[in-house]
Amino acid sequence: MHDKNISQVVISRLPRYFRYLGDLKDEGKERISSGELSKRMNVTASQIRQDFNHFGGFGQQGYGYNVNYLYDEIGKILGLDKRHNLIIIGAGNLGQALANYMNFERRGFYVRGIFDNKESLIGTKVRDMTVMPVEDLKDFIKENSIDIAVLTLPKQGATGLIDTLVECKISGIWNFAHCDLDVPDSILVENVHLTDSLMKLSFKIHDHNE
């Protein structure tokens, strides 16, 4: 069990810990100290210990952290010990790229279907899936226990689908559309605004060169 009031800043660091621990596992590393991990991740050892203490600590004095155990425990905190069924709505370049990204399945995320409203895309193949019309969304979500919808379509199309996703009681939306979504508290949204990220990089470059 862990404190439900943990800050989003701490939560946002967990995937990075998980990724580095996965690399350590692949290297055959069995244990690591907070000091060693801090050098790899460029995060202070104190910060690592503080972050892990929110979830019970995980380490032993004089021993450090068991890599396999810590990897598994952080995976559980992130919900990666469970299967998540996804649909992608928007079969353009980004939607197709996400559908073809095999690493999702290693983390328990399975793309079960891909949808679009363009006649030119409906019926085409992406990976081993046939692009379906958005009119089939409701039945597909119910029949396939879909809990996450990935939106990779224009703003107008994304906002027009919200009522359908709410009605289907989708659990979460991974939103690549260029808009903020108005959804009830029962649906969790993770916004990924690619241009925002690029503008942050532009600021860093500009600031570094000043």
CATH superfamily of the largest domain: NAD(P)-binding Rossmann-like Domain
Q: What is the CATH topology assignment of the largest domain? A: Rossmann fold
Mean pLDDT: 90
Beta strand %? 15-25%
Structural commentary:
The protein is α/β, with parallel strands linked by helices and 210 residues long. It folds into 2 domains: 8-77, Orthogonal Bundle (Arc Repressor Mutant, subunit A), CATH 1.10.10.10; 84-196, 3-Layer(aba) Sandwich (Rossmann fold). It contains 9 helices and 10 strands. The chain has helices at 8-26, 34-41, 45-53, 67-77, 93-99, 103-106, 137-143, 155-167, 194-209, and strands at 31-32, 65-66, 84-89, 109-116, 125-126, 129-130, 132-133, 148-151, 172-175, 188-191. The protein has a 6-stranded parallel beta sheet with strand order 7-4-3-8-9-10, sandwiched between helices. Helix 1 (8-26) runs antiparallel to helix 4 and helix 2 (34-41) crosses helix 3 (45-53). The longest helix has 19 residues, at 8-26. The radius of gyration is 20 Å and the shape is globular. It starts with 7 loop residues before the first helix and ends with a helix.
Task: Give a brief rundown of this model.
The chain has 210 residues and is α/β, with parallel strands linked by helices. Helices cover 45% and strands 17% of the residues. The chain contains 9 helices and 10 strands.
